Amino acid sequence: MNDSSIDIAKISVIIPTLNEAKTIEQAILSIVSSQNVEVIIVDGGSLDDTVEIASRTSVKVLSAAGVRAIQMNLGAEFATGEILLFLHADTLLPPEFATMVRQVFSARGNLAPIAGAFALRIDAPQRRFRLIEWGVNWRSRFANMPYGDQAIFLTAQTFAQLGGFPELPIMEDFQLMRQLGRLGRIEIIPTPVVTSARRWLKRGIFQTTVINQMMILGYYLRVPPTRLNQWYRGSKRPPRR
Description:
The longest helix is centred in the middle third of the chain and has 16 residues, at about 125-140. Helices cover about 40% and strands about 20% of the residues. Helix 10 runs antiparallel to helix 11. It has helices spanning about 5, 25-30, 50-55, 70-80, 95-105, 125-140, 155-160, 170-185, 200-205, 205-220, 225-235; strands at about 10-15, 35-45, 60-65, 85, 90, 115-125, 155, 185-195. The chain is globular and about 45 Å long.
């Protein structure tokens, strides 16, 4: 994109869903009032009213069997925007997100980032969640490693050059971020997205944190992604050492 096209660049927001009837409408409403932004829902086979709710709006709704990475890659294939933003269904973008995203790509030369994401805020009042937010935002800024719940965005051109998300059952965002980090800087917008606390509340903060760190360790130890996914979903616990 050249300087004159950045301010009007179209943004495609791609949301993979699976049984998100309780969250999808609010996610869509946080986006659709923005100018020159399209929303693409890619459903993975929901058994609830997710597709019906999404279909009531003006957004594009697609279906894709398989893992989340396949859903996001399909959404990117049908996207018409110069910028792609991948959003979790239980995460809300800030009101002026489109302007913020376009501004990230206005930098030139050595300052130009290869991609971006937002800071994270968890939708829960307890103080312990502020510690999680601090850790996430520290990691994102200083390790150049945001995760998928921070609304990762990049140009469609860069996404195509990388071949999209690796179609793994888990850790697809982690691997894409590693690839992007080798190419350049990942800008973190300080205004946060707001994500649901449900995964921490379901398993507990300590257990969720331990599981997440074990996934990263397993990734670096080259544990097969299928086995990592089994551990994460709870169908098979990691062996004690």
